[in-house]
């Protein structure tokens, strides 16, 4: 089937319309003197509409769309279900932990900043370092997805595409940082959800409609036909359960929105984002399932080409333009979140902690944030030239964060966890995860059984943490032990055959065992969590309520806009309360 393309003028016009609108929004909320705290978290008072749209748009990125379609093409109908359902449930799991994090650190900007207040420098650096790596990889993955789209759907090349996309995202995000990111997210999520509702049914019926499932059944293997495929679960579903839980807890782009949303709206925001993400990603994944039944092979053997290939094969020019905007919007919503996350880390965790909160120069902080964005997008452009598989990248970064999940959660609830326990647990988990993930160890005999036992403990840790968020410690311990013991007869002897899953679970197990063991040895004084709120807080105490400050109503309190003056008054009250 011949693939159609958009003409050069149409592509340029679509770029100008999309990024021009985003830049217009950013300029409308720009300030002559930018507030450093607002640049990082928008004052922590964003309302339900904007925050839920931003959370949904950030989680629905181009890489997740491509990966869901890849999963559908690889594993059949169960693939997108595993990818979208578990990802959605992980968003839901954020809110119980999120409420605790905001209670402990109501005015923080990054999770790493909180870890510095809780433990010290090494814990902060581990979390900040993992997020720098994760956000750069995320930026790279989004540029790869956009470059593949441009290369296939237009006369422009992959290189020209990633440069144009990187420049457009940087241009509007640079002005107002996080505020620009969340406001443009609202526009982007409307485009994405609307496009999915239209595009998926059109492609389905153009490819053959319901008859496709009968006519194309011979193109599937037995495992791909099986909705309860063990191959799909162990290679896709189970690793993603572990990986996305790690994303939820360790990812600064998620934490930044957690610190920005009004505290009483956390549950409402993340429940809404759960539904939005799940329905959209499962729907997009069906493009891979349709391609599988239709007997379509990815262009050049690259599964990253699958989604644009399906669009170019079955959509009319008008719908192809809508699809183009959908993908550009999805990758932009996450890429700008990665830029603002990296900027916040450099502003708060590097410069802010180096000079001290009271001595920090807000203007210099904002400048550092903007320079960070430029360096980050340049690095992503460089790495985007590499031949990388998006699905593998996602699972790998998620597993890296898996080493942090238990130590981070324990640090917010358990007053005996020390800096040594946190740091040694994370480093130990990474030291075991990497050789298991890349099969550097001969998995046979007693060695294989030993790692299977660790992986089985990891299963208990994952389900125990999920239960703990909603029901507390005792139910979590019960569920964790029962799950590990109950699964042992089936998992011991076979889990080592799945390197991705085994690596993730071993990472959870080792970090939990080491953290608990070292914490139990601690006989020192208990930590007073009130110290976190005293240590973290605003860097910028300038009054920006003058005529140079222009605000767009962000529905921060859902029913009325909040001005710079009211935000400043709130900050003053918080300072007085702390004193």
Automatic annotation (TrEMBL):
The keyword Ion transport applies. It holds the Pfam family SSF. Its main location: membrane. It is found in: Cell membrane. Keywords: Cell membrane, Ion transport, Membrane, Sodium, Sodium transport, Symport, Transmembrane, Transmembrane helix, Transport. Gene3D superfamilies: Sodium/glucose cotransporter. This is Sodium:solute symporter family protein. It comes from Gordonia hydrophobica.
């Amino acid at each position: 089937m011949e693939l159609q393309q958009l003409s050069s003028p149409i592509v340029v016009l679509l770029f100008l319309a999309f990024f021009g609108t985003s830049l217009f929004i950013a300029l409308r909320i720009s300030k002559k003197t930018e507030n450093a705290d607002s640049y990082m978290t928008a004052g922590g008072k964003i309302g339900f509409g904007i925050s839920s749209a931003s959370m949904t748009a950030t989680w629905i990125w181009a890489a997740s769309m491509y990966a869901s379609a890849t999963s559908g093409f690889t594993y059949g109908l169960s693939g997108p279900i595993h990818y979208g359902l578990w990802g959605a449930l992980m968003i839901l799991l954020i809110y119980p932990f999120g409420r605790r994090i905001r209670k402990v650190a109501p005015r923080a900007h990054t999770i790493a900043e909180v870890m510095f207040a809780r433990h010290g420098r090494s814990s902060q650096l581990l979390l900040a370092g993992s997020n720098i790596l994760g956000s750069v990889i995320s930026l790279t993955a989004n540029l790869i997805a956009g470059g593949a789209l441009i290369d296939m759907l237009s006369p422009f090349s992959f290189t020209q595409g990633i440069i144009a996309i990187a420049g457009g995202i940087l241009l509007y995000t640079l002005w107002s940082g996080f505020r620009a990111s969340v406001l443009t997210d609202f526009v982007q999520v409307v485009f994405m959800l609307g496009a999915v509702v239209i595009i998926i049914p059109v492609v389905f019926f153009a490819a053959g409609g319901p008859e496709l499932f009968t006519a194309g059944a011979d193109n599937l293997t037995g495992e791909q036909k099986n909705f309860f495929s063990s191959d799909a679960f162990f290679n896709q579903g189970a690793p993603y359960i572990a990986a996305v839980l790690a994303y939820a807890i360790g990812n600064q782009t998620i934490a930044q929105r957690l610190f920005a949303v009004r505290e009483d709206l956390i549950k409402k925001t993340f429940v809404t984002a759960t539904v939005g993400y799940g329905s959209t990603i499962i729907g997009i994944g069906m493009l891979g399932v349709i391609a599988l039944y239709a007997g379509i092979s990815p262009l050049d053997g690259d599964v990253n080409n699958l989604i644009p290939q399906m669009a170019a094969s079955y959509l009319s020019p008008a719908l192809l333009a809508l699809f183009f905007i959908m993908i550009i919007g999805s990758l932009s919503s996450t890429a700008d979140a990665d830029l603002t996350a990296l900027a916040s880390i450099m502003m708060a965790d590097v410069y802010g902690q180096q000079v001290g909160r009271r001595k920090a120069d807000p203007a210099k902080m904002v400048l550092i944030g903007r320079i960070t964005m430029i360096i980050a997008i340049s690095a992503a452009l460089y790495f985007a030239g590499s031949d990388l598989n998006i699905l593998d990248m996602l699972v790998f970064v998620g597993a890296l964060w898996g080493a942090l999940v238990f130590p981070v959660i324990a640090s917010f609830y358990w007053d005996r966890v020390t800096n040594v326990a946190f740091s040694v647990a994370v480093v130990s988990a990474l030291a075991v995860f990497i050789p298991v993930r890349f099969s550097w160890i001969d998995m046979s005999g007693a060695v294989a059984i030993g790692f299977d036992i660790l992986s089985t403990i990891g299963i208990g840790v994952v389900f125990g943490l999920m239960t703990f968020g909603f029901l507390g410690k005792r139910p979590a311990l019960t569920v964790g032990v029962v799950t590990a013991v109950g699964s042992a007869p089936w998992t011991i002897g076979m889990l080592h055959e799945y390197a991705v899953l085994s690596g993730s679970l071993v990472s959870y197990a080792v970090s939990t065992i080491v953290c608990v063991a070292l914490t139990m040895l601690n006989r020192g004084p208990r930590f007073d969590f009130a110290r976190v709120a005293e240590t973290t807080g605003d860097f910028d105490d300038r009054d920006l309520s003058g005529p140079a400050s222009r605000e767009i109503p962000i529905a921060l309190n859902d029913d009325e806009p909040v001005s710079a003056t009211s935000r400043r008054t709130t900050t003053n009250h918080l300072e007085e309360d702390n004193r």
